[in-house]
């Protein structure tokens, strides 16, 4: 075989080899999947949590929230009412609200007294002198609010709010029961003896 023909065959072989490699590379690129693109992962939606949980639970003995108690207390007209109540209690339920109770908070402590103990507590309420004008000078300390629910033999209920802080108001807010007199005891302020008695369990 001549040298010229040999060089021609080698050249053709090289061309075929180069084209084969190029074709192989093209096929590999065509079949390769596209690179994965980063995706934005949605962040979980934050769940709303209540800022405060009402303390205490509603009950038959202490059915009102502190908001309702304060509303009833604010509605009382100072300088009106009887100086001494003729109500004759046989029992009393004492509903105690936390010093920092707000809104829908209920009483956290409930105490019940009967017989002589109820009569003695009512005597302390009656002993406080009526105040003609709403107190304007009040202290800034915190303390519990009490609701005193006195019950008589006819199932009448006379309710008082007693504040062991601030203006120390002691006001009758309602008198429930058929045939009961409509005039409530006059607003007054709590005494040290009454606060001491309320603190007893």
* Unreliable spans: 1-32, 44-53
Q: What's the SSE pattern?
A: HHEEHEEEEH
SS content category: alpha+beta
Helix content: 25-40%
> What percentage of the residues does DSSP assign to strands (E)?
15-25%
Major sheet description: 6 strands, antiparallel
Give the overall shape: globular
Distance between the termini: 126 Å
Widest β-sheet, arrangement of strands = 2-1-3-4-5-6
Number of separate strands:
6
Taking Cα atoms only, what radius of gyration do you get, to the nearest Å?
Answer: 42 Å
Question: How many H/I helical runs?
Answer: 4
Mean pLDDT: 81
Explain what this protein looks like in three dimensions.
By secondary structure, the chain is an alpha+beta fold. A six-stranded antiparallel sheet has the order 2-1-3-4-5-6, sandwiched between helices. It is globular, with a radius of gyration of 42 Å. The protein is 28% helix and 18% strand. It starts with a helix and ends with a helix.
Explain briefly what this protein structure is.
By secondary structure, the protein is an alpha+beta fold. It has a 6-stranded antiparallel beta sheet, sandwiched between helices.
């Amino acid at each position: 075989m001549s040298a010229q023909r040999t060089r021609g065959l080698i050249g053709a072989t090289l061309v075929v080899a180069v084209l084969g490699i190029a074709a192989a590379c093209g096929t590999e690129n065509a079949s390769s999947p596209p690179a994965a693109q980063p995706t934005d992962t949605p962040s979980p939606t934050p769940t709303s949590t209540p800022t405060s949980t009402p303390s205490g639970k509603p009950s038959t003995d202490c059915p009102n929230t502190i908001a309702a108690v304060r509303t009833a207390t604010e509605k009382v007209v100072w300088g009106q009412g009887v100086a001494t109540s003729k109500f004759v209690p046989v029992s009393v339920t004492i509903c105690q609200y936390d010093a920092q109770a707000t809104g829908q908070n209920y009483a956290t402590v409930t105490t019940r007294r009967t017989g002589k103990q109820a009569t003695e507590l009512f005597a302390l309420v009656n002993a406080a002198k009526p105040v003609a004008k709403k107190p304007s000078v009040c202290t800034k300390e915190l303390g519990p609010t009490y609701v005193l629910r006195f019950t008589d033999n006819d199932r009448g209920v006379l309710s008082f709010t007693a504040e062991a802080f601030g203006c120390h108001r002691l006001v009758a807010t309602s008198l429930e029961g058929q045939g009961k007199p409509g005039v409530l005891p006059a607003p007054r302020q709590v005494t040290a003896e009454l606060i001491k008695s309320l603190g007893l369990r």
